[in-house]
Design a protein that fits this description.
- The protein has about 200 residues and is mainly α.
- The protein has one domain.
- About 80% of the residues lie in helices and about 0% in strands.
- It is built from nine helices and no strands.
- The chain is elongated, with a radius of gyration of 19 Å.
- It starts with a helix and ends with a helix.
- The model has no long low-confidence stretch (mean pLDDT about 80).
- Keywords: Cell membrane, Membrane, Transmembrane, Transmembrane helix.
């Protein structure tokens, strides 16, 4: 993966960074923790400009959020509520739960998008609830850009400073990504089991 990322950037330059960061949001196996440090290393070698590397990383990341945002927006809260009321019993999910989640995102969505863009494992997934809750596009883009800017700057800066050892960034962050995903999965399972138990107790 590292060699493929490096070869793409060597052949396409800044456009390669843009393309890779768009793909990273759609295909999580292509990690930004590898793309941006590699680009930072290229800047350290003098092949690229660090500010433009970061700009391309942010631009690609923001563009990459749009497909999932529009999918969430097209699916919509009402459609999801109807689906949950019809078929959500096996997930212990109801339309009321969807509305509660949507209300929560309406209140805290800007923080979720801002800080979530810096959390490996869930950063790309946040676009779906943002679209479903119909977060205004300007607000979504602004907070996505700020969060992505901080993340891209940190990764590219680390690659710039580490030089040939830029791959250490991905090596250190990869376990964090797995831990975050593990926590999310465990939390979902615990919530599911509690809802099942509560339903059983009521019946």
């Amino acid at each position: 993966m590292a060699e493929w990322v490096q070869n793409l950037m060597d052949s396409m330059g800044y456009l390669g960074i843009l393309l890779l960061m768009i793909l990273e949001n759609l295909f999580p196996p292509i990690p930004s923790e590898l793309i941006m440090p590699s680009a930072g290393f290229a800047a350290a070698r003098g092949d690229m400009s660090l500010p433009i590397v970061i700009l391309m990383g942010v631009l690609g990341s923001v563009i990459g959020t749009l497909p999932l945002y529009y999918i969430g927006r097209a699916f919509g809260e009402e459609r999801l509520v109807k689906w949950a009321d019809r078929h959500g019993k096996w997930l212990t999910l109801s339309g009321k739960d969807i509305r509660k989640a949507d209300d929560w995102f309406d209140k805290h969505g800007t923080k979720a998008v801002l800080f979530g863009r810096m959390v490996p494992g869930i950063r790309s997934l946040l676009s779906l609830p943002a679209g479903m809750s119909e977060m205004p596009m300007p607000k979504f883009l602004i907070y996505s850009a700020i969060g992505s800017g901080l993340w891209a700057s940190a990764l590219a800066g680390a690659g710039y400073l580490l030089g040939e050892n830029y791959d250490r960034v991905e090596r250190y962050i990869s376990p964090v990504s797995k831990i975050v995903l593990g926590v999310v999965v465990v939390a979902a399972v615990v919530w599911f089991l509690r809802r099942k138990r509560a339903q059983t107790a009521r019946s």
